[in-house]
Fold this protein.
Amino acid sequence: MYTPEEIQTIVNQKIASIEFPAQPADLYLPIQYVLSLNGKRLRPILSLMSCNLFSDSIDHALEAAIGIEMFHNFTLLHDDIMDHADKRRGHPTVHRKWNENIAILSGDAMQIDAVRHLSQVPPELLPKILRRFLQTAMEVCEGQQMDMDFETLSNVSREDYLEMIRLKTAVLLAASLQIGAWLGGASDHDAGLLYRFGLLLGQAFQLQDDLLDVYGDVSVFGKNIGGDIAANKKTYLLITALNNANESQKELLFHWMATDSTHVLEKVKVITAIYDDLNIKTLCENEIASFHDQAFRALSGLSVPIERQQAIINYTTRLMKRQL
Amino acid sequence: MYTPEEIQTIVNQKIASIEFPAQPADLYLPIQYVLSLNGKRLRPILSLMSCNLFSDSIDHALEAAIGIEMFHNFTLLHDDIMDHADKRRGHPTVHRKWNENIAILSGDAMQIDAVRHLSQVPPELLPKILRRFLQTAMEVCEGQQMDMDFETLSNVSREDYLEMIRLKTAVLLAASLQIGAWLGGASDHDAGLLYRFGLLLGQAFQLQDDLLDVYGDVSVFGKNIGGDIAANKKTYLLITALNNANESQKELLFHWMATDSTHVLEKVKVITAIYDDLNIKTLCENEIASFHDQAFRALSGLSVPIERQQAIINYTTRLMKRQL
C-alpha cells in the first residue's frame, strides 16, 4: 500500500506534468498558477487512499483525483473574487495578479477541465461517478451561497451552520472518498460508508479550523489568530456564543462586531474573553469529538481488513490532531 | 418530422418545467430568471432537428439539448459580468438585478447543471458526447478570452478574427448538431458533417450579426444601429476596414475610435462612411456567402434523403436571410 506522502508526490508530479495550451495565455496561465500554489492535496490523497483500500493499483484513479483537486481549486479561485481576498497560500490571488474578468473566465475553464479529468474513469463507472460529482459540485455552490447569506444575518442557528459546512466543505471530501472507493472496486455499501466517513470528518475539520482561528498556536496554524473574529465571520464559535450569551454579553458582542478595523486587537481580546466565559472552546471540542467518533464508527462497518484501514485511519487522525 | 416551431415549443415547455430547489434562493432564482428570458433556443432547436434527421423520435435527445442551452445561457450570464452589460434581451442582467457575487456563483451552478442535463444521454453514448461537449466548452472560453484580448489590440488580422468567432460562437452550434445527430443514431461520418455544417454556419451567423449592426433594418434587427461602432468593438467590418484603409482613412478611424460617447451619432456616421468608401458591406457579404455555401456543401455529403434534410435547410436558410 501507498503512504500518504507517496500519494502526495504522485499527485504533485501529475499536476506538474499537465500541459496547457500556450494560448490564450490569460486563460491558461492563471490555471497553472493556481495549481502551482501547492495546496495540501487533501482531496486527491483521500481519494487515492480510499481506492488503495480496495485495490493495490491506484493509477487508474489518478485522473479522477486530479479532477477533484482541480474543482476544489476552481472554487477557491472564484470564492477569492467573491471575498475580495488579496492572498491565497501566501501569494496574490488571480483577480489581484491579473484582473477580475480573467479570474472569472479562467475559473470557468478550470471547472470544465475538472470534469474532463474526472470523466477519464472507466466508461462503466462514468455515469455513477459523474452523477455523484455533479451533485456534489452543486452542493458546494449551495454551501457557498449559504455562507454568503450568513454574512447579512444577525444570527444563525447551529443546525444551519452545520448544514452550511456540510455543503461547502464536507461533501467534496466525502465524494473524493466514495469515488476513490468505487474506482478501487468497492461495493456501493463500502463506498457509501466512506462517503459517510468523509462527510463527518469534513465537518469535524471545519469546526477544528474555526477553533484554531482563536485557540490555535500561531506558529503552527500559519494564520493570524483571531482572523475570523476580526472579519465578523459567522463561525461555530461566534454562532454558539451568540446563541448562549446573556443580554449583556450579546450586547457586547454586537458592539464589537460593529467596530471598525482600527481596534482589531482589542476586539479579538474582548470577544475571546466572552468565548472563554461561555466555555465555547469546550463546547466546540465536544462537537468535534462527536463528529470524529461518528466518522470512525462508519469505517468500522467496512468489509476491509483493519490492517488495510490503518493507513487512512492514521492519516486522518494526524490531520485532526494538528495544532490541538 | 417536427417543424422548428414545434421543437421550440417542446424546448420551452421543458425549460419551464424544470424545478429548482427553493433554497438558497439567491443561487437558484437567477438561473430561473436567465432561462425565462426566452432566447431564440437556436442551439437546442438545431440539436433536435439534427437528431430528427436520423430518428423519428427526439424525446431521448431533449435533456442534452437543454444542457447545451443551459451552458449557452451560463456563458451569457458570465460574459455580461465581464462586459459590464446592463441589459440582456431587454431585461436587467443578473449582476445588476442581484449583484456580482450572485451572478458569478449562479453562473457556476448553471454550468454544473448544464453538464448534469447533458449527461442524461444513453450511457453507451456518454463518453463520446461528454468529450465533445467539454472540448467545446473549453473552446468557448478560449474564444471569450481572445475576444477580450482583442479589446486592447490596435489591430487584429482577419484570420485571428475568424478563429475567435469559430471558438466563441461556432463550435457550440457545431457540437449541438453533432450531439443531436449521434443521439439520432447517425454514423460518426454523418455526425462529423453536421459538425462541419454548424461550424461554417456559426461563423456565417456571426459575420451577419456584425453586418446587421451597421447595415441592418433597426425595426427588424431590434438593436440600435451602430452599437458595435459606438463601443469600438473589433468586428469583421472594423477589422477589414483597418486592414484595407489608406493612411488618412486609418487616421480618421483611430481618431473617432478615441472619441468619447458624446459624439456617438457623428462617430457612427463617419465610420459608416469609411466602411462605404472601402466597400466593406460587399466584402462582408461575400465572406458570409462563402461560409454559407461551404456549410451547405457539407450537408450534401449526408447519407440522409434530401427530403428529410429540407426542414433543417429551410430553417437555417431562413435564419441567414433575416433582415438582409
Notes: DSSP finds 16 helices and two strands in chain B.
